[in-house]
């Protein structure tokens, strides 16, 4: 009697457990025969695999695997491991009834009788697609953060070296200007001596340039883009092998474009080399130049107006949408190791951003690629006369580098200014207070102690009518993050030429 009651209780408990298992919806829990045939099917399995019990019971569980996994024998391997090791655990792609895939976490346990005979398998499957997607997104975010930190470290290193190097270039360029403009032997001797010292320091600095400095300041001016292209045509043609041709299609009577000729030439060379590589050294690269009038939002981020458009077009392999979406990322490249750094298109994109223009890509696999650069057009207006006199006011020059300060004194004196000098911010403020006739403060930005921005703020507070110009080898946008107030002052980029100096002084 007692044994019969216990059997009834066991049967009731087993039925409750079976109903519990069958009602679970977050997990697919089902039994397999020793051969892998499905013999039970719960609500969770039906919910995220899509099969009703009548459709699946009696069929082999391998139908949930992808074609490639079945071909590799993974279902059979899973049962073998579960039988021999006592458990099988895995993650991988599985297939729903509608053919869609989900990422599954799988556990298979063997079921044996008291004598050790295999009765079948208990299989538990979880849909962890969301967790996998979240993990992948987190990994991509970590990679992006690492890349950002790496670029920031490289940028700080090379930006600092570039700043010092620009100071040296400033000495050399202005010394050459003085040699060209002055007939005084003493000025010639002094300039040559100063430039020689700067060149020696430059030779030492070049050994420290371990990476490409991406904080190169632009010298943006109104230029005839067609003239720049024609003067650079020979270099572009030499970049192509004998089996390739460069075809120029340059419209005439175009407006001038706001660009830096040196950086523009570098961008053209990058794009022509990319076109050459895309066509594997055979075919024709087209370089087109035209004026276009854009409506608002016709090209992303560009306001309506007149632009000079430069297009480099190839007939190469083209890009997939996935590659095109990443094409301007720094260090992203589809080229073989050693054949591309991934900085070429990124550099061109950065140039267009600094020029307040835009870079666009039009590419399809097997149909080639067209890279377009849109430069703001300048309608009418003549360039400033480089030989015009800048004025005869009193100017205070401030720089902690003796060679830079010495050259600046000679340059401003040649322009007719009465020059006073200081090598730090505190000395500059004392000079301003003792010389009320100073009309212009011309200071370097990065100096020990008081920076040029701090000097400018203090000077403007005491002398509201003082004209202030800050000079730096760093890009203004790069400095703005560390010195938000820099936007309140007129800026000039080092190295500056005599014409750049005249233009800056004329707008004060």
Keywords:
Beta-Lactamase, 44% helix, 508 residues, alpha/beta, five-stranded parallel beta sheet, phosphoprotein, Heat Shock Protein 90, single chain, seven-stranded mixed beta sheet
Give a short summary of the structure.
It contains 16 helices and 16 strands.
Layout of helices and strands:
Layout (H helix, E strand, L loop, with lengths): L1 H22 L4 E5 L10 H7 L3 H4 L10 H5 L2 H12 L2 E8 L5 E12 L5 E10 L1 H53 L3 H22 L14 E3 L1 H14 L5 E7 L5 E4 L1 H18 L4 E12 L10 E9 L7 H6 L17 H11 L3 E6 L5 E10 L15 E5 L3 H13 L3 E5 L2 H10 L3 E7 L7 H11 L4 E6 L3 H7 L7 E4 L4 H9 L2
Parallel strand pairs: 6-8, 12-13, 12-14, 14-15, 15-16
Antiparallel strand pairs: 1-4, 2-3, 3-4, 5-7, 7-11, 8-9, 9-11, 10-11
